[in-house]
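Example complex used in Figure S2.
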Amino acid sequence: MQNFVFHNPTKILFGKGTVASIGDETVLLGKKVLLVYGSGSIKNNGLYEQVIQSLHSAEATIIEYPGVQSNPVLSHVHTGIELAKENNCDVVCAVGGGSVIDEAKAICAGATVQHDVWKFFTGKKSVRNPLPLTTVLTLAASGSEMNSGMVITNTETSQKFGFANKHLYPKTSILDPTVTCSVPADYTAYGAVDAVAHVLEFYFTTVDPYTPVQDRLMEGLIINAMESCDRVLQNLNDYKARADLMWTATLALNGLTGAGLGKVGFPMHMIEHSLSAFYNVPHGAGLSAVIPGWMRYHANRQAPRFAQFAERVFDIREGSVEKKAEQGIEALSAWFTKVKSPTNITALNIPGKDISKIAENAMTLAKVWRMKDYNEKKIEEILQKCL
Amino acid sequence: MQNFVFHNPTKILFGKGTVASIGDETVLLGKKVLLVYGSGSIKNNGLYEQVIQSLHSAEATIIEYPGVQSNPVLSHVHTGIELAKENNCDVVCAVGGGSVIDEAKAICAGATVQHDVWKFFTGKKSVRNPLPLTTVLTLAASGSEMNSGMVITNTETSQKFGFANKHLYPKTSILDPTVTCSVPADYTAYGAVDAVAHVLEFYFTTVDPYTPVQDRLMEGLIINAMESCDRVLQNLNDYKARADLMWTATLALNGLTGAGLGKVGFPMHMIEHSLSAFYNVPHGAGLSAVIPGWMRYHANRQAPRFAQFAERVFDIREGSVEKKAEQGIEALSAWFTKVKSPTNITALNIPGKDISKIAENAMTLAKVWRMKDYNEKKIEEILQKCL
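Predicted assembly (774 residues):
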């Protein structure tokens, strides 16, 4: 195990009826609240009214900032920062999925500085004193509700960049699984794929060859993400299944899986970010299109690791190490297919001739994330396996 | 999954060389430090000097309070509280295992109130504003370094009572596995047994019949506690094994396993507390003497749960549900025997004629912990299976 610091101070309120606490939890941090949300789907399922009522009961002053899009864009972050500054907001409350929470974090970071918030994303500045954040989560996927990271797309430069900072953990996040019951099957599956991808990134990129404690945690989370997603897809209103999927996705990227692994990378996300920077595909769909190819490229180089994955996640016990490694990848691909998430980029209508453009774009992120073991040629080779 | 609040704000610094940070981490909370430790074993392995040097470098004023015994006693807590008050201490720094950290928490709680600290243990008062706590952990076992609970023995009343309070999480805990390399084989094993017991308590007492996310986390922790303990017992200086055991024991009782299980009990600990209140047996040894009997009593009542335990923890796949349940208990007992921890109370020289006395004592704790499904007769029946 590698040395690590683990400090996750986010308070989680989980379960039915917890949305009613968002007002009290938020005004603990300040009365003037920037309320960030998306395209308005929260107005269709009653959540918007619940949040407004709770904030009003807690005597908050609300400045609304709707319109966050999936794959949130820098220009909308900028406008949100201006609004927070103009109104001297004390606190930001995000009601939405990972995109809304990510954008809210960027607004928190940018609202207390004079320079462009993008400098945090390019590593030129470091966050020190952001506005505090509370969240009401509406989608089991990103883990943003209990971590300090975010991803924003700069459409001017076609860069989808992310960073994390210890001051950007939400203070309180409310996870009521009933809120997610209105998420349709496709986005439920993409969310589960995202959670699985978060675990896979750490599982297959750790520099430590022996991390048994983290391994079993990660393997359990992957199994649970798949199983609970399958149950939800049988019945979108299955509260227990929604709850299991929601908590699994949170645990999949709250720092625990990576604690002790040492330096890890996010190569699958890196490549997917370039797909969605160009084509605006759903994040989870982009991930499942990249993951099998990425895994096939690496399986022979780390066969024992891939075989362990196959054995423990899919109970594949027969055959050579290489054979098990291969069967594990096929089993995961089969699950993607089962939940109707694409297993290659061709299914996303991304042509093979674009591969070099995608690889070039991905390299700009590889540099920012200091992923020194990647170059354009390698990314192109991986993408060839994703066709 | 049941509704829950999860909020664990303890900062963990894990790994080689982290002890040097204890001074800086502690003086963040105040300059006047009550340094709590045990019988002085930390003076034999160099740890005491490291801590003193780090505190001095950080310009702390140190008031030393040694002499905490295993199964820490209320009278020693009282004297520590007086010392903290007399010296207007700002912060408590505990250097030791679970006993030392538990006593330090009780001192933190008692140092800011006028009434007897025991009132917190009997539920008559609630902690609101304790002194802050930092810790340097020396034994992988109790999980106290990352939770808000403690257990103290009142020798006047022969009561070994425990409670938890959200204000009593350590602010920072330092976990350097090298520090644990001087722990002998027997206490290493007892520590691992304690960690396993913490998981078993929740696993078998949850009121929720279906908790797949928590189950896989718990099953993984039990496997890791056993496997890493086995590796340590092969070579007491195996850093990697010590690290795996240390982090496993912390995760085994930091709130994650129980989040979503609803009301859980601590019946094995309840009975063991009565053993060690009378006989001063090592906590882990007392637990392994109680666990198989407790499990045999319950196996028929919850056979599918016990069968799942057998399947997933010990890979027992053949036979009926009842048969698997039984084999799982035997496999766990066999592991206790392998690591030389007793599997019944007879091995601890506790005579069968004392069973009613032990059951009567355990019932006083059952009342405080509100374990309404226990009575003296039931505890006696369980203890009969522990002979």
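Chain B has a mean pLDDT of 96. The domain at 184-384 of chain B is CATH 1.20.1090.10 (Dehydroquinate synthase-like, alpha domain).
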